[in-house]
Write a structure and sequence with these properties.
Blueprint (H helix, E strand, L loop, with lengths): L2 E5 L2 H12 L4 E5 L9 H9 L2 E4 L3 E7 L2 E7 L4 E2 L3 E4 L8 H5 L36 H22 L5
Parallel strand pairs: 1-2, 1-7, 2-3
Antiparallel strand pairs: 4-5, 5-6
Length: 162
């Protein structure tokens, strides 16, 4: 129930804003000046969900006590929020794995099995390259699973029984 701004644009920005809608009634989508290029249905959905979209670039940021206190847009209007939530997305850095021959999903993430091994035996991938959740805690959990699988695989290949 705080005043929240989602920094993002397009369908991804809308998706994040809708996800956060259940936590607050005061929600704004800041595009940082990027035009949303939304369909009429998408704009209607924002209206129905009472999500304001501000498509102006940020002209000035006011910082007080080490936190962002206000954002002024190009038109001169100032906006204040309790929380800024970044939803700018991420690009999976899979170039090396792809050069090695790993298979990639249309979304840019690598195909992995339940132990986070890619389509190449012995090559593991975790975090943003394996899942679009883009959260440190998710990457850490992936890494724990992959590390255990790698350990077990190395033990097996060395002839040691586990």
């Amino acid at each position: 129930d705080r005043k929240v701004a989602v920094i993002g644009h397009g369908k991804e920005g809308i998706r994040e804003a809708l996800f956060l809608r259940q936590f607050t009634a005061d929600l704004t989508l800041l595009t940082l000046g990027k035009e949303m290029a939304l369909t009429d249905d998408e704009r209607q959905l924002l209206r129905e969900e009472n999500i304001q979209a501000i498509e102006e670039p940020i002209a000035e940021v006011t910082v007080e006590n080490g936190r962002i206190a206000a954002l002024k847009v190009r038109s001169g209007k100032t906006h204040s929020f309790d929380t800024l939530y970044s939803a700018l997305g991420a690009r999976a850095r899979t170039d090396l794995a792809l050069r090695l021959g790993a298979k990639c999903k249309e979304s840019g993430e690598l195909f992995v099995d339940e132990h986070y091994q890619t389509s190449i035996d012995g090559l593991y991938a975790v975090g943003d390259v394996a899942s679009g959740l883009n959260q440190i805690c998710v990457a850490t959990a992936h890494a724990a699973i992959a590390a255990t699988a790698i350990h077990n695989d190395l033990q097996s290949k060395s002839g040691r029984r586990i």
